Amino acid sequence: MRILVLYATVEGHTRKIVGHLTSTLEKAGHDVRLIDSTGDDTVPAADEFDAVIAAAPVHVGSFPAPLRRFVKANAETLMARPGAFISVSLSAASADKGEVQEIADCVEEFSKETGWWPISIHHAAGALKYTEYDFFRRWMLKRIAGKEGGPTDTSRDHEFTDWNALDAFVKEFVEQAPNLAGKI
Ligand SMILES: Cc1cc2nc3c(=O)[nH]c(=O)nc-3n(C[C@H](O)[C@H](O)[C@H](O)COP(=O)(O)O)c2cc1C
């Protein structure tokens, strides 16, 4: 299958997720076209791909503006094929149902704003990259993590992504997609 993978990243963790899923898909024999929505690449015509997977991180309650603009500008083409969205956040790892709901609301807001409604959504837990943040970010993220019972050791980074759950999500979407083509 020809799969379009779109993404945005701020701190690099979503790029790692996309790199992982791209190599998994390619090993399974799929043809992946990768687009960083912050670059100047364009979406191919709908007859040049069979399914789309987009991935983006939540930063201060919303997805990066360049990705939102890119998806909105290409929503009609993207909607012509089955789509999956991978939302990357710290709240995805939270035990607090309110936090998890807030992230689900962010995804709904994203679809309302862009006009792109994926058929499958996965909430992937992201990473705390304390060693790469500037002083203010490190202080802010440490405070948020502390409030939620997360790690506050800023001498190292912390990764929360469940790679097996991510693989299972992508596998299921790719298996379903051919049956959904033309039904959206
Ligand atoms: C400045 C900043 C703001 C963030 N805001 C949120 C947030 O509102 N909700 C959340 O769940 N995670 C938040 N996060 C956590 C990120 O979603 C997480 O670190 C993710 O792995 C970042 O992905 P990226 O490396 O692709 O940018 C924030 C992280 C940073 C550095």
Rough outline: globular
Strand content: 15-25%
SSE series: EHEEHHEHEEHEH
Summarize model confidence as the mean pLDDT. Answer: 94
CATH class of the largest domain: Alpha Beta
- Termini separation comes to 18 Å
Task: Tell me the major beta sheet.
Answer: 5 strands, parallel
Q: What Rg is obtained from the alpha carbons, in whole angstroms?
A: 16 Å
* Tally of helical segments: 6
CATH architecture of the largest domain: 3-Layer(aba) Sandwich
In short:
The protein has helices spanning 13-27, 65-73, 75-79, 97-114, 135-147, 163-180; strands spanning 2-7, 31-36, 51-57, 83-89, 120-125, 127-128, 158-159. The protein is α/β, with parallel strands linked by helices. Flavin mononucleotide (FMN) is lined by residues 9-14, 57-61, 88-91, 103, 126-127, 137, 141.
Can you describe this structure?
The protein has 184 residues and is of the alpha/beta class. The chain has two domains: 145 residues, Rossmann fold; 31 residues, no CATH class. The chain is 42% helix and 20% strand. The strands form two sheets. A five-stranded parallel sheet has the order 2-1-3-4-5, sandwiched between helices. Strands 6-7 form a two-stranded antiparallel sheet. The radius of gyration is 16 Å and the shape is globular. It starts with a strand and ends with a helix. The structure holds flavin mononucleotide (FMN). The site of flavin mononucleotide has 20 residues, from helix 1, strand 4 and helix 5. The site of flavin mononucleotide (FMN) has 20 residues, from helix 1, strand 4 and helix 5. GO terms for molecular function: FMN binding; menaquinone-dependent protoporphyrinogen oxidase activity. It holds the Pfam family Flavodoxin_5. Keywords: Flavoprotein, FMN. It comes from Oricola thermophila. InterPro entries: Flavodoxin/NO_synth, Flavodoxin_dom, Flavoprotein-like_sf, Protoporphyrinogen_IX_DH.
